[in-house]
Design a protein that fits this description.
The chain has helices at 7-11, 41-51, 112-118, 139-148, 156-160, 162-165, 176-186, 196-200, 213-217, 224-240, 243-250, 276-281, and strands spanning 13-22, 25-34, 71-74, 77-80, 93-96, 103-105, 108-109. The protein has 282 residues and is an alpha+beta fold. The strands form two sheets. Strands 2-1-5-3-4 form a five-stranded mixed beta sheet. Strands 6-7 form a two-stranded antiparallel sheet.
Length: 282
């Protein structure tokens, strides 16, 4: 017995109910595993796979809360399995797949929609004259963008977003994760693309009603609503929905925003998903 293990720990059991099934249906199956000090829910899932049922499907990779692979729902809340301690949960631990995405098997869902949407967002379009040079930026701009770069693409924010989760408006709203990506580009001082066109249109930023549920579940503690979505909403409102600002700009009492390239200037090559077949066709 290790020095960190007590007799109470040896006798303690962890009780779980894990969803087993696929698109055709499924059910919660009870399991009991031996408690280990420092155990997280992913440890319990691995114990089940190793000692009770090797067919249990679960996606994971780093077990360090950095890859974003082990996203699921624990007692109804989107969380990372590897970051959720069993000590923090009272009673049975109910583990189910993310509800917002199509189920593949057990705890594994098809999150490919997120990557298809991401492909619609053009990469950084560097200003003319700045290509090939080291960027010179204010530290405040660096810090602002750096927060968004912490995203590990666990898609917990996408899963908890009611526009996607409850209303399935995937065709009209890119979701919180992609708002973070767009914010990182829109707020980048070297980006020369008018991303407000996409935000107002295809990205559907107006669909978000800032409940902050996405911020609550982010394992990297990115302030998605306050630092990404709300500032983007304000920028879109400035350009399209503020008549006073528009009038003051027109009569010269307020400076015009520096013009940027329209979305139509981006080559289609930058906003499509390439497969081995399409690359071979070239």
């Amino acid at each position: 017995m290790s020095g960190n293990t007590t007799n109470q720990d040896v006798n303690r059991k962890v009780h779980l109910k894990v969803f087993r099934g696929d698109i055709m249906g499924g059910e919660l199956v009870p399991y009991t595993v031996q408690y280990v000090p420092g155990m997280v829910v992913l440890d319990a899932i691995h114990d089940i796979q190793q000692n009770q049922d090797t067919t249990l499907a679960c996606r994971w990779n780093c077990k360090a809360a950095k890859c974003g692979s082990c996203s699921a729902e624990i007692n109804g809340k989107p969380r990372l399995l590897c970051k959720t301690s069993v000590d923090d949960i009272e009673g049975d631990i109910i583990v189910t797949p993310m509800r917002a995405f199509p189920l593949l098997k057990d705890l594994v869902t098809d999150v490919s929609w997120n990557y298809r949407v991401q492909a619609k967002i053009p990469p950084l379009q560097v200003k003319e004259g700045e290509q090939g040079r080291a960027f010179r930026m204010m530290q405040i701009d660096v810090d602002r963008v750096q927060e968004f770069r912490k995203c590990i693409e666990c898609f917990l924010c996408q899963d908890v977003c009611h526009v996607i989760r409850e209303h399935d408006r995937k065709e009209e709203f890119f979701g919180p994760r992609q708002m973070v990506r767009l914010a990182a580009l829109e707020m980048h001082p070297m980006d020369d693309l008018n991303r407000r066109e996409q935000l107002r249109g295809a990205a559907g930023i107006g669909m978000c009603n800032i409940t902050k549920c996405c911020t609550e579940v982010c394992p990297e503690h990115i302030k998605i609503t306050d630092n990404a979505i709300i500032p983007l909403k304000e920028r879109v409102a400035d350009d399209y929905y503020d008549p006073v600002r528009g009038l003051l700009t027109k009569i010269g009492l307020m400076p015009k925003r520096e013009p940027k390239l329209p979305m139509s200037s981006v080559p289609n090559e930058q906003t499509v998903i390439h497969t081995p077949e399409t690359r071979k066709a070239k």
